[in-house]
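ok posting inputs for the zinc ion job
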Amino acid sequence: MPLLPSGAPASGTVPPALDGHVLLQVKTTGPAPLGDVSPVDGGLVFCGRRAADNAAEALREDGFTGPVLIDPSAYERHVATPERPFVTGQGSLLAEDGLQEELERQRERKATVALTPTAFLKAGDRASLEAVAERASDLGGDDVLLALPLDMDWLRGSRHHDLIALLPRIALPKALILCAPRDPLSSMSAARNLREVISSAPGIGLLRSDLAALDAMVHGAGFAAVGDSASARHGPVPGGRGAPRPRRDPAVLFPRALSYHYGETLATAFEGATEVPRCHCAPCREWGAAHGTADGLRPLTSFTDSADRADAHRHNHAAWSMIWDYVMAAPDENEAARRWGLCCERALPTLSAANEAAGRPGNPLKPPPALRVWAASRGRSRRR
Ligand SMILES: [Zn+2]
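and the output
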């Protein structure tokens, strides 16, 4: 698989080690399929309070040779102010915010590039955003990645125009992280506005995301990361307002429907149905062989318990990797965008058919609002 569609120009604002990569973002290492990640076109981003320890462990024990990022995740606990846009939580001898020392700590941990400890940027807080940009301009070296953890409300109304105006002026490689109590792309307008922002800053990254990472990649992003668990598919809001309670059943990617559904939701929906969606990804084939299923595949209704979590995460990673492999096997970037658009178009009728096959009232398998946006337009990559 090519790293980039042939003819796609590399952008000067993308760290070369990340260019064209879709990484796995991990908060809790236990159920994460670290051994399945490709060092060639994938990689790992560790986030949360244990990010540094988890990264060091993965590097030491598995000898992973692909890109590894350590997201200090300052935005999980701290809100940015114009005076204090970066927060390390540790004292510094050199500067009040300890920014350089935090970056150095990541380098010592063998991070591929060092990610800034940017605090949470409240929607519409242009002063803090500008302070981030200004302080970032002081940072030297070609191994620093500016993290921009944004309140999801930056994508509502016309606030995203401030991002579009400012982002291209920041010369440092940069990556967006969307923060919300739940899905940051819970409205079609947010998904549409995110595309506009990504397209306005070619080469930018989108970290800690879901399948929006793939949509971003065909609309100008230089690299992206898909979360292993729900808590790694978006950032939280400091203070934790409205965070959902953890569930026993894992979220399962329904590959042809390009959407995540809880294992119990899938099992209940198809209870008694004759047609149940089945998966042919490598981990699911392994499971099918071990359980002697007639077609060697695994039903998507079989991930109902916390004991199925690691299997579900392996399946999820394998499933989106298969989709991405198909998109990236395109001969050029326009064809890649077309392929992604076709996958999205096909997903909506797939979900309708699945609801029909399940025969439950209320159509329990809901399409994510972003999918309607991705399916509605086959945009061209603007990474030029
Ligand atoms: Zn599978």
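notes: DSSP finds eleven helices and twelve strands in the chain. Residues 82 and 88 are 15 Å apart (CA to CA).
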